Amino acid sequence: MTKNIYLSVVAPCYNEISRGNPLEENVKRTLQILKKNYNDSFELILFDDKSKDSTKQAIQKLAKKHKNVIALFHEINKGRGKTVSDGIIASKGKYSGFIDIDLETDAKYIPIIVSKLEQGYDVSTAWRHTKAGWQHIARDIASNAYRNLAKVTLGTSFNDTETGFKFFNKKKIIPVLKKTKNEGWFWDTEIMARAHYADLKVIETPVQFIKKQEIQSTVRFFNDIKDYARELIKFKMQILKESKLK
C-alpha cells in the first residue's frame, strides 16, 4: 500500500451479516469510488466491534482480498462511537472520517464531502434527506426530535448531527476527539458539539438517504428519543462543569 495516505475511511461494523447487510458488495462499491478518485492513496478500515455473528471472518476475508482494506477488531464490545474513535486514531490519512457500511448514504458522496476539507473546512458531514414515503415517517420524526433537542440544549445549529457520514482534517479533530467521552451512539452529537465549541469550521452537505428495507434497523424510536434526551442533559452538565474548571 502507498505509504502516503491521503484519505482514511473507517467503517464501524457490528453483526452486519445477521442484519442482512451485503458487506462484500458494499465494500466493493466503496472501493470503486475510492480508487476512481484517489488511486491508491487511501485506506478503508473495516473495524469490527466484537460481533456475535460471522462479521469478523467476513472482514478478515475482505482484507486479504483487497490491498487497501485494513481489518481491525475490538476484543470486547465497546460501542459504535469508540469504534469510530479508535479507527480514526489508527488511521494514516491527512483526512479521516467514517461511513455506515450499509451505504444507506451512498459512497458516491465521499469525494463531495471530502472536497470541502480541501477548501479549508475542518469538519465536513452529510446532511441526510430521505425519500418521501410513509415508511420513512418514524425515522424522520425521530431525526427531527434529535435535531431540535440538540439545538435547544447545546446551542448549536446543525441540521444532522447523527449522520453516519463524517469526515475530518485529522490534525484538527484529534484534540477534539480526545475530549469526547461517549462511546455509543451519542458520540456523533458530542463530536459535533465539541467541534463547534472548539471553533472548527464545519459544513453540512445535503445528500440522499435511502433506507434499505432488507437491512434490519437498529432504530427503537421512543426508547431512542428518551435515551438521547438523557445523554443530552448529561453532556450539557458535563460541559457546564468543564467551563467552570477553566
Keywords:
single chain; 246 residues; alpha/beta; Spore Coat Polysaccharide Biosynthesis Protein SpsA, Chain A; seven-stranded mixed sheet; 8 helices; 7 strands; globular
Radius of gyration: 17 Å
**Name of the CATH first level:** Alpha Beta
Q: Strand fraction band?
A: 15-25%
Which structural class should the secondary elements be placed in? alpha/beta
Order of helices and strands: EHEHEHEHEHEHHEH
CATH architecture: Alpha-Beta Complex
Largest sheet features: 7 strands, mixed
Q: How many beta strands in the DSSP annotation?
A: 7
Give a summary of the structure in a few sentences.
This protein has eight helices and seven strands; from the N terminus they run βαβαβαβαβαβααβα.
Write the layout of secondary structure elements.
Layout: E1 7-13, H1 23-38, E2 42-48, H2 55-65, E3 69-73, H3 80-90, E4 95-99, H4 110-118, E5 123-130, H5 137-154, E6 165-169, H6 170-179, H7 187-197, E7 202-209, H8 222-245
Helix pairs in contact: 5-8
